[in-house]
DNA sequence: CACCCGTGGAC
DNA sequence: TGTCCAAGGGT
């Protein structure tokens, strides 16, 4: 959980996770779906899949791996995690190199090289390996990480209080050369700008047959259509509202609806337009979700349908419940959604609330006139 | 080696 | 408001 994720973000997830799956055995018996739901909102969802795979691997093996090289073979465990478990849990004398250690080491040895380059990474591991305290490798590794996380911070290092400042070559250099500072280490490497994607998102709500008219759109029994994303790639295997990527030049309302209609037709095996009465279809707004490598602009629309009975039946028959589900409002709010999809849902909900308020005002005014 | 894969807190 | 990046790993 802590891979590329800060402790404060993780703690609650960790508690819930460990309460539900306290042992490797119990986790190995869980389903991918359960694991996804528990992980929802934490990001880097492959970690959840790998953790489940890893647990199964270990059960298959029959014993928990106790050395870094054995741990390294488990799914989702790389050099860092293998070293951390081996040293902290089993006292193996091996180093760990995470983002914090990279900062500490690159300053201690005044390493000007690109910290992402493999040769430099190799050097970090070698240098840290020379320093590990053989009697307390776990404590040493945690101390190195803690030093990097606190005193030896990225922008404001507390060199005056640092217990190893007398060994720090970056500090020495900075005192000799005014143009060079401790914070120049590790070298900053420019990263690629995120690409821009555009998506049409349609929150499809199936109204009850009895519920005619917009006044019923807040009915708790109304169903939302959710789709399971492909098992590979971005947000793999997670649930979302029907979405289609559109090219940058075709983000206008007409093109978006055209693409969405095509998608829904294929998805539900029916022609939505012909087999339903559209109670409401309206643009809700757009939301820009920032991933680490993608800037995704989502154009959100709300569509409330009243399907003909036979079309509803077709939907049920045509739907593969492992890829497509109709879920009521309560369940949507309690289920595991990605943070972007949750944002979209809240947007739509606010939109409906506003609509309902406007409508009740209209009703009140009408009633007022009637009484006169 | 370059790129893919989320999220939110800090500054 | 924008930028950075965290207890990284896989392909």
UniProtKB/TrEMBL annotation:
* EC number(s) on file: 3.2.2.31
Q: Which domain of life is it from?
A: Eukaryota
GO biological processes = base-excision repair; mismatch repair
Q: Which UniProt keywords apply?
A: 4Fe-4S, DNA damage, DNA repair, Glycosidase, Hydrolase, Iron, Iron-sulfur, Metal-binding
Keyword Transport part of the UniProt annotation: no
Write down what this protein is called.
Answer: Adenine DNA glycosylase
Identify the SMART domains for this entry.
ENDO3c (SM00478)
Functional note: Adenine glycosylase active on G-A mispairs.
Q: What is the UniProt remark on how the cofactor binds and its stoichiometry?
A: Binds 1 [4Fe-4S] cluster.
Family recorded in the similarity comment: Belongs to the Nth/MutY family.
One Pfam annotation reads HhH-GPD
Q: Which InterPro entries match?
A: DNA_glycosylase, Endouclease-III_FeS-bd_BS, HhH-GPD_domain, HhH_base_excis_C, MIG/MutY, MutY_C, NUDIX_hydrolase-like_dom_sf
GO MF annotation: an example: metal ion binding
Gene Ontology cellular component annotations, sorted alphabetically: nucleus
| Record flagged with keyword DNA repair | yes
Give the reaction(s) catalysed. Answer: Hydrolyzes free adenine bases from 7,8-dihydro-8-oxoguanine:adenine mismatched double-stranded DNA, leaving an apurinic site
User: What Gene3D superfamilies does the annotation carry?
Assistant: Helix-hairpin-Helix base-excision DNA repair enzymes (C-terminal), Hypothetical protein, domain 2, Nucleoside Triphosphate Pyrophosphohydrolase
Cofactors named for this entry = [4Fe-4S] cluster
Any idea where the HhH-GPD domain is? 1-150
């Amino acid at each position: 959980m802590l891979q590329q994720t800060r402790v404060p973000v993780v703690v609650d997830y960790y508690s819930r996770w460990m309460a539900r799956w306290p042992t490797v055995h119990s986790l190995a018996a869980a389903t991918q779906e359960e694991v996804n739901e528990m992980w929802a909102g934490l990001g880097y969802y492959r970690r959840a899949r790998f953790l489940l795979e890893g647990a199964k691997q270990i059960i298959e093996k029959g014993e928990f791996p106790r050395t870094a090289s054995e741990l390294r073979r488990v799914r989702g465990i790389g050099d860092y995690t293998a070293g951390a478990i081996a040293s902290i849990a089993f006292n193996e004398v091996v180093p760990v190199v995470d983002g914090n250690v990279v900062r500490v080491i690159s300053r201690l040895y005044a390493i000007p090289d690109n910290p992402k380059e493999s040769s430099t990474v190799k050097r970090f591991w070698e240098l840290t390996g020379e320093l590990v305290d053989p009697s307390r490798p776990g404590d040493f590794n945690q101390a190195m990480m803690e030093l990097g996380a606190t005193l030896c911070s990225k922008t404001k290092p507390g060199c005056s209080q640092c217990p190893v400042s007398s060994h720090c070559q970056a500090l020495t250099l900075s005192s000799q050369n005014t143009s060079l500072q401790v914070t120049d280490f590790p070298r900053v490497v420019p990263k690629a700008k995120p690409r821009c994607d555009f998506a049409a998102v349609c929150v499809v709500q199936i109204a009850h047959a009895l519920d005619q008219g917009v006044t019923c759109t807040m009915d708790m029994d109304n169903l939302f259509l959710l789709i399971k994303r492909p098992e590979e790639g971005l947000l793999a295997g997670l649930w979302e509202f029907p979405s289609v990527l559109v090219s940058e030049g075709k983000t206008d309302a007409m093109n978006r609806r055209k693409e969405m209609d095509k998608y829904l037709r294929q998805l539900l095996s029916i022609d939505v337009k012909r087999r339903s009465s559209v109670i409401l279809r309206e643009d809700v707004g757009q939301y820009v979700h920032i991933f680490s490598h993608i800037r995704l602009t989502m154009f959100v629309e709300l569509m409330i349908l009243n399907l003909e009975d036979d079309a509803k039946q077709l939907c049920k028959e045509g739907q593969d419940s492992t890829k497509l589900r109709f879920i009521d409002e309560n369940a949507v709010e309690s289920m595991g959604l990605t943070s972007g999809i949750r944002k979209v849902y809240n947007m739509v909900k606010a939109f409906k609330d506003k609509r309902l308020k406007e409508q009740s005002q209209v009703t009140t005014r009408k009633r007022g006139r009637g009484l006169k």
